[in-house]
Amino acid sequence: MSGLKFIQKMQELFGLSPESAESTKKKAVKELVKKLKLRHILLKKELKNETDLIKREALHDSIKIIKKQMKKGKEIVDD
Amino acid sequence: MKRLFLFIVIIALSFTFFYNQNLLSIAAGVAIFLFGMKSLEEGFRFFVGGLLDKFLKKITDNLYKSILFGTVITTLMQSSGLAAVIAISFISAGLISVAQGVGIILGGNIGTTTGAWLIAGLGLKISIATYALPMLVFGMLFIFQESKRLKGIGYALAGLGFSFLGIAYMKEGFDAFKATIDLTQYSADGFTGIILFAIIGAVMTIVMQSSHASLVLILTALSASQITYENAIALTIGANIGTTITAVLGALGAGMEGKKLAAAHFLINTLTGLLLIGFVPQFIHFIDHTAPFFGIAEQDYTLKLALYHTYFNLFCVLLFAPLVHHLVRLLNYFFQPKITAENAIDDVLFINDAALDFPDTAQATLLKETKHLYNNVYDIIAQGLSVTKEDISSGMEIEDILKRRDQALHVNMDDYYERRIKEIYGKIITFAIVAQGKFSDVTTQQFIPIKNATIDIVEAFKAAKHMQKNMLRYLESDNEYIKNEYNHIRKTLIKHLRTMQMIFNTSEEDVAVLLLSKLQLDAQNYDIAANKSLDNLIRTNKITYTMATSLMNDTSYAYTIASELSKVAHTLFVHATSESTEGREALILNEAEISDLTHASSPRSTS
């Protein structure tokens, strides 16, 4: 067994087996998109109840950003 | 003085070697063994990048796991000194607590006993020199490979080979010595003898900085019957006390937390040693009774010494493991951080030489020190806006803050830079450059953005400094229009700083990702709106030309502050953990995406 293989075996043994950078990134993005979806729902609810104009505008901006982020995340995951 | 001492030592050794070849053989054995230990350490350093960080996070979340980790790592590396250095480095970088570090040290004490068993059980009973030579050959073969990991294996293998060779030389030297001189005639009996030999053991270990080397020397001398069993036990106690010097030396360049750990190591081993030194005869009796259970023959004193070493260290762990938290409290009492007075020069809080031992600790330290610098710059930018950082973090409506702070706050920003920024900034940049040169290319890539974030922080400060002059003038102006414009700059930057604080304080990744994009959107919206407002004021002759020029410049400075700080928040968030930085970064909108959003939304009126 080569040195590298031995190290990989040890990493697997301790649950540290390295995944490819691409799959790790996709996994992280998927998790984040899930959280952003929930945040999107929360912000929409908040917007419904908000009467202050400036705060409504800020919430609008946040919702716009989240929508764009969710779209971007979906593209990365589907890629 | 040091040089004179070295000169005397060289002359004395040369003289001794000239008259006694056997002593040369023993000294060469010690030297080769120590060289082997250094190689072994070097080999393991190739594996610690990234891997050790993950390991520590998984394993050292409670005291008993820390002890286990210390035991395993010392057994693998055969060096309690390196375990102590790892613990000090990780504590200095704030990756583990002092209590967890003490756990690693206690585990290291147990791990070091395996070495005594290996030497006593195998090293002195079989001809290990025969294994040493092929290990050296294969080790060197691996060292010349390109791969870092293979290089690491090569160093570890060569290290083991040299250690084995060193043991063989020592053994040979003592065996030959036996034929010409009997050292046991210098043995000392009774309590005085124990004290004397314990001191010799401690001094010997301090000089060699390796309890392992001392143990090998003691065991080989004992196996050649050159010292008595009782004196060997006293030497072992001394070696256990002397070994703490490695941690003490390692902590000299470390921060306060590292010093606490070194003190803990010294206290634990010294107190155990002082306690057990009074019970050597009783322990010998105890070993005589228990040795047969482990299959140790009555006359096998080397294995009996290994058993004593194990009992000593187990006793040490059993005695101190339940007291770790009390010990940490005691250390916290004696090692208190210096409080920087408001007008004193602020210095780095985390950067120290120990943090440069491993890439993970260097990165964590760089990140923390950059946040420290940011906090100072945040404080002065707030004052430059004639508010305080407490106002910003208060949760008050921004309009209310501005009403409360309607007078200009005169603060000397150059003086603040000299006292609380310059020193830290310089040390961060130096640390990053040294770290970049020390570690591999992959790790270096992590240092560059953090170093750039430090530069961005100082750029934001410079912009705030340039803006302050007009801010002070126009906040007290009679022209309501220009005053309103400067209040608008204040409002925008207070909002920006508040969002930055939220990003640093939130534990929710999605909130941080959203706010980071929002920072950029707000900065771009502000830039567009401020320019429109400026055009309007000039066209309607509401401000003078001088005022217009100042406002134009200061709008640009405000935009620089906002955008530089956005970059800082981005970098510090993305690099907060070594795991999946790309994943964290992917959803933060870039400049072009933000521009799309800005142009899609209708512009706001600011006047």
Automatic annotation (TrEMBL), chain A:
It comes from the Bacteria. This is 50S ribosomal protein L29. It comes from Sulfurospirillum multivorans (Dehalospirillum multivorans).
TrEMBL record, chain B:
Keywords: Cell membrane, Membrane, Transmembrane, Transmembrane helix. Coiled coil: none annotated. It is found in: Cell membrane. Its main location: membrane. The chain crosses the membrane at residues 126-145, 152-170, 190-208, 235-254, 266-287, 307-328. It comes from the Bacteria. The keyword rRNA-binding does not apply. It is a multi-pass membrane protein. NCBIfam families: Na_Pi_symport. This is Sodium-dependent phosphate transporter. It comes from Sulfurospirillum multivorans (Dehalospirillum multivorans).
